[in-house]
Amino acid sequence: MSNDRPAEPSLFRRLRESAALNYLIMTGGGLFAYALIMVSRGNDIGVMLAGVFAVAGILARWTAAPVLILLITTYLSIDPGFINAIGVFGGSPWFFARPIGGFNLEDLILAAGLLAYSIGHYRLTVMLHDGMPSEPTVQREPSVLLPRRPASLVSKEELPRTLMIAGGCVVVAQIGWLVLVAIEKAGRPRLSEFSPNAARFFLYAWVLGLALMVISAALVYLRGAGMTQPEAATLLRDEFFQENRRETDRLQRWRRWFKEKVARRRRSGK
Length: 270
Known about the structure:
With 270 residues, this protein is an all-alpha fold. 69% of the residues lie in helices and 0% in strands. Helix 6 runs antiparallel to helix 7 (158-185). The longest helix has 30 residues, at 196-225.
């Protein structure tokens, strides 16, 4: 039996498959939209850094690339063109411009481009490279190359469904931003001692927490409504045991002590 391992297809050959090529176009389109908006705001250096991170992330399985690009974008939204960072060495004071409120088409395109790139990056990572790291306990290479997840398993409906979900996330985020700006225009954050950015953050955290509480309560209710009678009885018995575990343990200890006492008396003939 031959121990020769079959030749692994090259990275560029795997990229030419239809499913991987579709996600590659999606990733490139997201980066192109991202670059247009960032260049229009004077962030040429940020675009070059994002391009380097994006290419390295796809070719070298660098999963931290989208996170780094997001951090760079967040910083450049506060300090366009690294002007304030450069001004630190020149002795000029820092200046943070007030964020623009309300609907902004450029911000919407920027968010959509970043989301499209992030989704495409992680999907391509699974198709082109190993989705999970190799087992560290294996001491020797296998004689047969383990098959990768083939791109042919990707259905035709996956990409349109992914685009619809991404678009819905962008719309929901924009609606949330409009709600925060509307609350700010109503004068509530200005009456507090917090800065506008801090007030928006607290409002966002409060609204998000409230939404999660409502969703969690709805899911718990739906799960309970869909249970059968034996499932509900089992759940109630488990909840009863968890809530009364200490009392039950105490009663069982007294019961065991009384049984041992009675057994000792019978053995002694009393």
